[in-house]
Specification:
By secondary structure, the protein is mainly β. The protein has nine helices and 25 strands. The strands form six sheets. Strands 1, 2, 3, 4, 5, 6, 7, 13, 16, 22, 23, 24 and 25 form a 13-stranded mixed β-sheet that branches. A three-stranded mixed β-sheet has the order 9-12-11.
Length: 469
């Protein structure tokens, strides 16, 4: 990485505004700060840019939210790799701040988003599709949103027929994504999101199986090299966490209520007038798909399966804690509500809905685990190659040298904010939210919990009072 002077260094290669009036104004020398936000639960990236205007171009050029901002940002020594460069047009949505600092200077902040976000708000879909869910998503992106960005899609199974009635494109994508089962790994946990590198439609399982892009060491003050005159190694300094905050959001009451630990779906088949049920139990399903450590051999539950009552039940056995009621129109594993017009009119060859099945319950549970298991907030030196949806490892959590911490191991980057601070000497920092749903270490069970041994309550009879004065 020759040419990199310090971790977090960046180069603002180009920055200009194209106004709706037809003016093109270079703002490279006026930029104070740029923020770009992305996350695996966000359909679009967005951000803002702070500008110190000494050329009075803001008053000369009328900016009113119909303008575009072009940014090109690189990290030194990797600009020859196209995939590691932020190079994109954004659409201005609003002017959030405007302050006059002197007679000839003004500070203002513009918020921006992507053109696909605008297209989504301006477009409604009213049409039928018959393809695999991911092929339908690809068609919506290209035909309805007219995107030319890179798209990475994890192929799904089963031909579906679906009719969207007056739906926004992203709402349609979210609807059909619930029907998708991965052809690669059989997982139903699809996500659709955008980063600075393009659009992704992938399962959580696929994300978890990625190799980590970096190994973080919390608490390392400096990583030095050299003899008597030691200097900080900029490459190693990328692995140093500036700030870290552990957030163990492990609330068994909430996880019980929202279906992370167990749930049930009752399905009413309107075609043959039958009722069936599907169940999700955390410990039974735990090793069905790889989790945050990336393999069934390394993933261990954060909860343990101790017996908690006299009926030999664990915390993962209470399926009635979260229930769903769904309806289908299905005949012998076929969708009886849509016939295949490409064949005989009586040919019902499409796959039935997955909503209400075990895959639906699994998808719901895995999605909610991200917010309700282990979360870490990290501030680290920035790199334009990082994006939401990648994985990283934490080798040394704060205040833990045991080597057996649940906070060690592999994490998924769920949210990321790139902060490019030109005013602070071209310093790039990343604020990230990291999540995991498993432990690299086995949680030892000391003994079976028996609440009757210590949850002794006072006993007595019931007294009815007819008149209280």
């Amino acid at each position: 990485m020759a040419g990199l002077q310090y971790a977090g260094e960046f180069v603002l290669d180009h920055a200009f505004i194209n106004t709706s009036s037809g003016d093109r104004v270079s703002i490279k020398s006026s930029v104070v700060e740029i923020n770009i936000f992305e996350g695996i639960f966000k359909n679009n990236i967005h951000g803002n840019i702070l500008i110190f205007d000494t050329q009075n171009f803001f008053s000369k050029t009328y900016i009113r939210g119909q303008d575009t901002v072009y940014l090109e940002i690189t990290t030194p020594s990797i600009s020859d790799r196209p995939e590691l460069v932020i190079k994109q047009h954004f659409f201005v949505t609003s002017v959030d701040l405007m302050e006059e600092t002197s007679s000839n200077a003004m500070v203002f902040r513009l918020s921006f988003t992507t053109k696909e976000h605008f297209a989504n708000e301006r477009t409604k879909i009213s049409k039928a599709y018959q393809e695999t869910p991911t092929k339908i998503i690809e068609s919506i992106l290209k035909s309805e949103l007219n995107t030319r960005k890179a798209i990475l899609i994890e192929t799904s199974n089963d031909i579906k027929r679906v009719v969207f009635a007056n739906k926004k494109p992203f709402d349609a994508i979210r609807q059909i994504m619930q029907e998708a089962i991965s052809k690669v790994n059989g997982s139903p946990s699809y996500l659709f999101y955008e980063t600075t590198k393009g659009f992704y439609c992938r399962t959580l399982t696929n994300l978890y199986m990625q190799p980590p892009v970096i190994d973080y060491n919390a608490g390392e003050v400096a990583l030095l090299e050299g003899g008597t005159a030691k200097t900080i190694d900029p490459i190693k300094d990328f692995e140093r966490v500036i700030e870290m905050q552990l957030k163990p959001n492990i609330d068994s009451l909430i996880n019980t209520a929202i279906g992370v630990l167990a749930s049930r779906s009752t399905n009413i088949n309107l075609y043959n007038k039958t009722i069936g049920s599907d169940f999700y139990r955390h410990f039974e399903e735990f090793n069905k798909f790889p989790r945050s450590e990336g393999s069934k051999e390394l993933d261990n539950p954060i909860y343990n399966d101790d017996i908690i009552d006299n009926r030999d039940r664990t915390i993962g056995d209470f399926v009635d804690a979260k229930t769903h009621l769904t309806t289908t129109f299905e005949d012998n594993g076929r969708d009886a509500s849509h016939y295949n017009t490409q064949n005989d009119i009586n040919s019902y060859s499409f796959a039935p809905t997955k909503i209400g099945t075990n895959s639906f319950l699994t998808r719901q549970a895995k999605r909610r685990e991200i917010d309700n298991m282990v979360t870490v907030k990290v501030l680290a030196n920035g790199h334009v190659g990082f994006e939401a949806g990648q994985t990283c490892t934490i080798l040394k959590p704060m205040k833990d040298d045991s080597g057996k911490s649940v906070y060690q191991g592999k994490y998924l980057i769920t949210e990321l904010r790139h902060n490019f601070n030109v005013g602070a000497g071209n310093k790039h920092e990343m604020a990230m939210s990291l999540s995991k749903d498993s432990s690299p270490n086995i949680i030892e069970k000391k003994s079976t919990i028996n609440f009757e041994d210590y949850a002794v309550e006072s006993s007595g009879g019931i007294n009815y009072v007819d008149d209280i004065q």
